[in-house]
Amino acid sequence: xxxxxxxIAHKSGVPDDSAAELMAAxxxxxxxSSPTAIVTGWGPDLDAVCSSLQSSYxxxxxxxxxxxxxxxxxxxxxxxxxxLPPGSILLVAHEHFGIDLAPGLSVKMxxxxxxxxxxxxxxxxxxxxxxxxxxxxxxxxxVQCDISSGAVITLRPGAFKPxxxxxxxxxxxxxxxxxxxxxxxxxxxxxxxxxxxxxxxxKHAVLVSIGRGIQEKNNVAIAQELADALGAAVSCxxxxxxxKWLEKSRQVGSxxxxxxxxxxxxxxxxxxxxxxxxxxxxxxxxxINKNPKxxxxxVADVGIVDDLLEFLPELTNKIREMHSVSVK
Amino acid sequence: xxxLVCARRVPDTSENEIELNSAGNDIERDDxxxxxxxxxxxxxxxxxxxxxxxxxxxxxxxxxxxxxxEILRREMAMGATHGxxxxxxxxxxxxxxxxxxxxxxxxxxxxxxxxLTGVQAEDGGAQVGGMLAAMLDYPxxxxxxxxxxxxxxxxxxSREIAGGNKEMNEIDLPCVLSIQTGxxxxxxxxxxxxxxxxxxxxxxxxxxxxxxxxxxxxQAAAKVKRVDYFVPALGKGAEMLxxxxxxxxxxxxxxxxxxxxxx
Lengths: 328, 263
Ligand SMILES: Cc1cc2nc3c(=O)[nH]c(=O)nc-3n(C[C@H](O)[C@H](O)[C@H](O)COP(=O)(O)OP(=O)(O)OC[C@H]3O[C@@H](n4cnc5c(N)ncnc54)[C@H](O)[C@@H]3O)c2cc1C
Fold this sequence. Notes:
The complex is a heterodimer of chains A (328) and B (263).
Chain A: E1 4-7, E2 10-11, E3 14-15, H1 18-29, E4 36-41, H2 43-53, E5 59-64, H3 73-83, E6 89-93, H4 96-108, E7 112-117, E8 119-124, E9 127-134, E10 139-146, E11 151-155, E12 171-174, E13 186-192, E14 206-210, H5 220-230, E15 233-236, H6 238-242, E16 263-267, H7 273-276, E17 284-289, H8 296-299, E18 302-305, H9 308-327
Parallel strand pairs in A: 1-4, 1-6, 4-5, 5-12, 6-11, 7-11, 14-15, 14-16, 16-17, 17-18
Antiparallel strand pairs in A: 2-3, 8-9, 9-10
Helix pairs in contact in A: 3-4, 5-9
Chain B: E1 2-6, E2 9-11, E3 34-36, H1 38-54, E4 57-63, H2 69-78, E5 82-86, H3 96-109, E6 114-118, H4 128-136, E7 140-150, E8 154-160, E9 166-172, E10 175-179, H5 191-196, E11 204-205, H6 207-210, H7 218-221, E12 224-230, E13 239-240, H8 245-258
Parallel strand pairs in B: 1-4, 1-6, 4-5, 5-11, 6-10, 7-10
Antiparallel strand pairs in B: 2-3, 7-8, 8-9
Helix pairs in contact in B: 3-4
Bound molecules: flavin-adenine dinucleotide.
Flavin-adenine dinucleotide (FAD) sits between chains A (136, 211-213, 237-239, 251-256, 268-270, 272, 274-275, 278, 288-291, 294, 307-309) and B (13-14, 119-120, 143).
């Protein structure tokens, strides 16, 4: 059985939530496996991460180098190629760093590559069976992967439930001396934090959220009118921001804001995982979509198959009517 | 600057209800609306904007079949200088690595300063750009949402990271970048524009033209294979409201009020 490694992202000395999910995924590949955590970085933060992993991982490989103080994927790749034994399976979270690192690493390791995996069905000989989604989550696919020369696999955040486990009392092995000098054709400069917008969607109890189904900029007013009647704010999915119909600060999702409303009206939103990743706190979700197969209906509490351009104005009228009755 | 954009034609998920075919080994492809993969179109627009600032050319390449010429013509109507189709029976069933291997051979036949791809494709998974860069030993950046050309063979780019924050980097040319949607506003392409390029010949290259070993690509060489498609058994799913629009509106108001969503 190939040796399994997990790449642990971290920030300010704390391992990312994905550390426990990657462990759970490793156990799905092989229930008896004891995966090894790999952490790259520099200084006291790196030591803090390694020591906190000792409770969950039997073994942690520490790769310390000043050039790795910021996780530059090209440098991390060079470091991993040096230390990973041939034929290893490496698990990485499918987010902005994993997307940057994993495909190139698989080439340099001469290993198979599968991205954005949601499920692991198990291993038979040198064939690993995995589950992915395609076409915006409308269908899933079984994928088989030949791991005879190793594999790099990125895992969808949230898809693997962390396991309950007894403290591992693990050891930390320092692999830094194996590195040699590290240089890259890409250099990190700085991080620019997203600007705050006119409306803070993270503070609203009710969100009227619109997606590509709103079709054009002029129609945004239809959602705003409903939001006004409800005392809610208008939020949106990414294509609405890409088209410049609303500001970036209104975007819900992995590359936008994380919101925790009580009620979320998803209007013309298909329900991609990047969008859903921004909805937390288990709100009551009402989905309006003209496609009865839209994945949003799998996660919504209530679904309506209709044209939002006709449905929303009627809903707005009804709510206004109620307000005027209650005022009288 | 000589820029190559790798693009693909895919079923448009916002326009289609994707269903399985009866055998379950593919999606039902009859009657699907196809278009250029969305981020690839942003990549072409970005290339055109760079060239209009500093000069150069934009070549759009796709690995596929005759049907895929349609997107090449569309991008040429947008302003791309050349469209190239890479097509060979030996390429069928290639995994991401196979496609990257084919593209690498094409890149090495030309002289490009910059290679762009889209961030990901509907049925792919953000793989070809990063693999291609590693095969060429070029630097790579994914999720790129702005590009500024600097002096001295370098670019300043930003990458989109969590929460809408931007990671700024400097990167040496030649390099490969995967382009994220929203980086620009792609220009509109009308029927007239497409008609104007309808008869421009599109060169086609096969395995032997590119010097690609057919054994290193295609179904047989693929380490990763899709076995079948399925629609997963769902959790409980949404309660679908039935009835007239008026009845549904009333029901929604009632439910939203019960959840504290009415002031
Ligand atoms: C790295 C990365 C990060 C991303 N981050 C985010 C993010 O933070 N947030 C985010 O939202 N996305 C994000 N995305 C994009 C994401 O993958 C999806 O493409 C996006 O969420 C789709 O938005 P949508 O549902 O509005 O559009 P689509 O998927 O196109 O869906 C539109 C829906 O509207 C319906 N519709 C159309 N017309 C009507 C009508 N008249 N009435 C009713 N329904 C109608 C259609 O049936 C369809 O279901 C990210 C992607 C990547 C690669």
